[in-house]
């Protein structure tokens, strides 16, 4: 029993030190919104960027327009948000004479990044289908808006 | 839990076989049962978690066969989401007691553990997305499992009668979890943050030792003294 004071002191010291060493930093918040995909239009012949004469880009089940020719300028690359409530998003592309669609199918997982930050959707692109040209997945993991990535997720050959 | 029983049973059979060869010093001298004070403290001070753990060990000469059993529940509630995770876990393994020859059954030990966790999680979320009409996302994930290994060290000191106080420092390594489909676990009961592949842990314990018999070495010393 005469060992007791020394043991107790060691327990307290070791406990404090290990407790401090075991602390770890919480990660930074990402965002609570669903990720976006970058799509790139290219010519089938030479694989160079091409600018399709699209008038509007939107999605089924969304009231928002992601591109409107009346206010935006035409380009070869577009950034489109994925539907975080479903496992697929069907985008429509309005041209002067027709409406074409791009169906993006993906896997969704939810992770609690941090109790203070909230939940985050993790998406993983599975397949794409389009009624115009041919589409293929280049990068399967879409980025979040605050990651500012120019990485192309889907390439559409016209 | 069935793995837990099997491991304990196997350990018992192996050691019993060994002791039957005439190595009487390997016969257990007592069993120690205790309670994790760290998890109880966290349960009291943190409103989002509730965790309880009991521990026990039995000695075979200078080796201690350990078993920890625990249960944990985590509830995170914010304005736009509720996240619940609950489950149970066990750890089992062998320690070497470096002060086995001291009286009063003190222990200064190092050892290893194998641990498993079984848990369920659910989330209800109302994300505020600018492009899609607001909906609720509800996901339930059942029968998730995890396992990991631990390298442990610590001590157990007899402070009063058969009561012991002590700590265990653990290096948790090789964490692996599976069973998740839509919901990636935030925490693993008994382990900690699921995203961390290896980490330190530290626990204080209070325990009570029920002696079966005197240690052979102590009996010998008593005979010599007389």
Show the helix and strand layout.
The complex is a heterodimer of chains A (158) and B (226).
Chain A: H1 4-21, E1 36-42, E2 56-59, E3 65-68, E4 77-81, E5 88-94, E6 99-114, E7 118-130, E8 134-137, E9 154-157
Parallel strand pairs in A: 1-9
Antiparallel strand pairs in A: 1-4, 2-3, 2-5, 5-6, 6-7, 8-9
Chain B: H1 2-19, E1 30-36, H2 37-45, E2 49-60, E3 63-77, E4 81-97, E5 107-125, E6 137-160, E7 163-178, E8 183-184, E9 187-188, E10 192-193, E11 199-211, H3 216-225
Antiparallel strand pairs in B: 1-2, 1-11, 2-3, 3-4, 4-5, 5-6, 6-7, 7-11, 9-10
Describe the protein's architecture and organization.
By secondary structure, chain A is mostly beta strands. Chain A is built from one helix and nine strands. Chain A has one helix at residues 4-21; strands at 36-42, 56-59, 65-68, 77-81, 88-94, 99-114, 118-130, 134-137, 154-157. Chain A has a five-stranded antiparallel beta sheet, with no helix packed on it. A four-stranded mixed beta sheet of chain A has the order 4-1-9-8, with no helix packed on it. Chain B contains three helices and eleven strands. The model of chain B has no long low-confidence stretch (mean pLDDT 88). The interface between A and B is large, with 38 and 43 residues.
């Amino acid at each position: 029993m005469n060992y007791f004071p020394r043991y107790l002191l060691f327990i307290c010291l070791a406990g404090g030190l290990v407790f401090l060493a075991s602390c770890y930093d919480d990660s930074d918040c990402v965002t609570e919104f669903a990720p976006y995909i970058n799509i790139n239009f290219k010519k089938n012949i030479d694989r160079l960027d091409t600018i399709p004469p699209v008038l509007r880009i939107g999605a089924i089940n969304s009231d928002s327009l992601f591109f409107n020719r009346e206010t935006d300028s035409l380009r070869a690359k577009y950034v489109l948000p994925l539907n975080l409530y479903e496992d697929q998003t069907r985008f429509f592309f309005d041209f002067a004479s027709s409406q074409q669609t791009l169906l993006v199918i993906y896997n969704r997982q939810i992770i609690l990044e941090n109790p203070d930050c909230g939940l985050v959707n993790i998406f993983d692109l599975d397949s794409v289908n389009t009624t115009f040209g041919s589409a293929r997945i280049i990068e399967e993991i879409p980025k979040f808006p605050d990651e500012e990535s120019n990485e192309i997720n889907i390439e559409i050959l016209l | 839990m069935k793995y837990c029983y099997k491991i304990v049973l196997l350990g018992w059979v192996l050691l019993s076989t060994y002791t039957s060869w005439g190595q009487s010093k390997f016969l257990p001298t007592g069993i120690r049962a205790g309670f994790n004070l760290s998890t109880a403290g966290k349960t009291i001070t943190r409103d989002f978690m509730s965790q309880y753990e009991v521990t026990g060990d039995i000695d075979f000469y200078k080796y201690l066969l350990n078993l920890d059993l625990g249960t944990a529940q985590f509830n995170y509630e914010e304005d736009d989401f509720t996240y619940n995770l609950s489950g149970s876990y066990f750890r089992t393994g062998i320690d070497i007691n470096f002060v086995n020859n001291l009286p009063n059954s003190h222990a200064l030990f190092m050892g290893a553990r194998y641990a498993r966790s079984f848990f369920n999680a659910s989330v209800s979320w109302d994300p505020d997305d600018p492009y899609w009409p607001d909906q609720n996302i509800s996901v339930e994930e059942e029968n998730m499992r995890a396992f990991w290994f631990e390298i442990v060290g610590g001590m157990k000191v007899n402070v009063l009668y058969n009561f012991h106080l002590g700590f265990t420092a653990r290096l948790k390594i090789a964490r692996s979890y599976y069973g998740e489909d839509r919901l990636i676990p935030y925490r693993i009961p008994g382990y900690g943050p699921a995203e961390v592949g290896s980490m330190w842990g530290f626990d204080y314990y209070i325990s009570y030792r029920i002696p079966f018999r005197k240690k052979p070495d102590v009996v010998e010393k008593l005979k010599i003294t007389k």
